[in-house]
Amino acid sequence: MSKIIATAAIRGAHAMVARAEEDLQKTIKAKGKDAQVAYPNTAYYLPIMLLFMGQKVQKLGDLEESLQEAKSLLGRIPDNELWLPYLGETLDSGVATLIAEEIIESLKYVNGNPVEGIWLGFTPDNILRQQGIKLVDGRMPGFVAIAGCTKKNSEAVDLIQGFQARNILVFMAGNTNGKAIAEQLAEEGVEMNWDTFTVPYGKEITAAIHALNFAARSAMTFGGVEPGDMKAAREILLYNKERVHAFVMALGADSKAKGLDDGQLITDEKYATAAGAINFGFPVIADVPIPEIHPTGICTYEHVISGIKIEEIISRAIELRGLTIKIEEIPIPVPYGAGFEGERVRKEDMHVQFGGKYTDAFELLRMKTLEEVEDGKIEVIGPEIDEMKQGEAYPLAITVEVAGREFQEDFESVLERRIHEFISCAHGIFHMGQRSIIWVRISKEAAEKGFKVKDFGEILVAKFHDEFSKIVDRVQVKIYTDKAKVAELVNTAKEVYNHRDDKVGAMTDEDVEEYYSCTLCQSYAPNHVCIVTPQRLGLCGAYTWLDCKASHQIDEHGPNEPVKKGDVIDANKGQWSNINAYIDVKSNGNLKKFNAYSIMEEPMTSCGCFECIAAVVPEANGIMIVDRDFTGMTPIGMTFSSLAGQVGGGQQIPGFTGIGKLYISSPKFISGEGGHKRIVWMTKQLKDEVAERMRPQLEVEGLSDLWDKIATEEDAEMPDQLVEYLTKVGHPALEMESLF
Ligand code: SF4
Ligand code: ZN
């Protein structure tokens, strides 16, 4: 353990705690001890206090207790002769620093709004959950928290694109000599937000706390670890060390900072924050030669390595944290990776576009015989990009033909739905929608780098081979940009889509002998199992029965297994003998049984990545459904965030269940409690989104007038308002058998 680090980190912790105390006293003086303090849209109070102290901070006065805890953790600043042989005191000072930083950052919300310009501030729970899914399914191998800046802006851009191409989430906080890497990226026009995996938290190093409170909440949300005492704190930290593959990157020397010792290259506050991160098992990598810490113990590998050249820093970091990363080798002239998936191409930056409201465009994937497919063949029928005029819209048809001995026609739609993701991951390409409602843009930058229409084919050939090698032997792609040809083909494509919908829509849970399990989320919620049936898809909305079937065919040791239903125990509630036996084993004995279609009796459990939550509204004798994008209050007096905090983690909570959006229009929707007639409230946005599927379904059930009787936040926010509304419109739930 280096003396310099210990001294600087402990000194930094003292400074940080002193600042927190000063900020707190000032704020209390101005607002009083009873003033509220909270981060926006979270059920985890101030997550760092919840983690380390089990403290539920709500008022400024509560922060005095937090501050006391931080003070008690502060180590004595070692004098120059003293040698600290182990990390203990430094780590405690690290925790003190984190508590102080959480105080400082949360006070910013009390005193104004820290979210301004490029800085995003605290991550709300709904975003945590969205990004959590990417961590769960492996799209994101980990995250890096960068403090500081690079020498040149171009190095910053290269570094960030390197992380994006490896799908590593980038958090940014702090600066070096007044410059932050996020500012360098902004100067270079790099789009920074959650969709592009680049998250600028704040210019001060204290904002790094948001990366750590994100990590702490990941363990609580997905790991189901209940915070409260030191044992839980240790579990949360261990969870992070083992499952949240993160590291800290300190860039640049703080040559202009005051109060540095001779030869000290990084400020005390940065050392102190790094000591805090090491508690989470997150190692530190620096480009400047700060003292290294090698002994392994808390981190999986070294705690600190330094003096790494900027060109090598990503690969060294990956080794250091032991990440498994696959870089996609796709023969196209632009970088490729999930970090580019969510980027948009604005009109000013666009070279050409296809579809949207401008032209006909669609994509279609069909199964062919082996003889019919010449592997790797890509044809462009119609003008190529160099024959197109900048700023114009052109028609587009992407048709993919696959052949494989194990391929089945049912898999067509499963593969076809992946086209969106595959194409979006190319840097400078925007893709939205599916089937005949796609909208695609190619940026000027991509066009300048030589991206061609043909490259859509390159991407698809490579990705279908890569991800579906078990079922796909040959792939060929025909891309049409010829107007007449696209107009002619779009009708045939629509017939295919309709045919598929009829087939899938007609499939019932009674039709099949086996359902599929999904245990993908067990990497985060170890006791959670989804049972996916034709009429109830996985709660994340990403896995239908057909998806699971294809996924099993692709990898029989993967997360999806066929499970024979066995004897029907209760057809209405959805309980089967073999399913019970299976979940008993797979939930590690935590669940003995569940009902797929009941919310009141042994409902299916939830991991944390549900698209929506259904919950009973006792006063209305019905249920409400809230989607995860809704940040307002629901009629049961809880936000989505606070509900999610209760429902997740693989526990069975009668009255609450996580569901996928498609399940809402299923004929099996909570049939155990009477089905659709029980829906009394939905968020407006969700109601609009599912209307197209709900209306015909309600008609079939003879309930066509029900739809307009379901309230939204525009009709009622409080339970009594809701009951009043339901009485006025004559909602049937009020007359149904009591739910309790
Ligand atoms: Fe997770 Fe269930 Fe979705 Fe599988 S189906 S990814 S277990 S939420
Ligand atoms: Zn999940």
Structure explained in plain terms:
The protein is an alpha/beta fold and 740 residues long. It has 3 domains: 3-321, Rossmann fold; 344-406 and 435-499, Bifunctional carbon monoxide dehydrogenase/acetyl-coa synthase(codh/acs), Chain M, domain 3, CATH 3.30.1650; 509-735, Bifunctional carbon monoxide dehydrogenase/acetyl-coa synthase(codh/acs), Chain M, domain 5. Helices cover 36% and strands 14% of the residues. It has a 6-stranded parallel sheet, sandwiched between helices. A 4-stranded mixed sheet has the order 10-7-13-12. A hairpin with a 6-residue loop joins β12 and β13 (439-443). The chain is globular, with a radius of gyration of 27 Å. Residues 518, 520-521, 530, 532, 538-540, 542-543, 607, 609 line the site of iron/sulfur cluster (SF4).
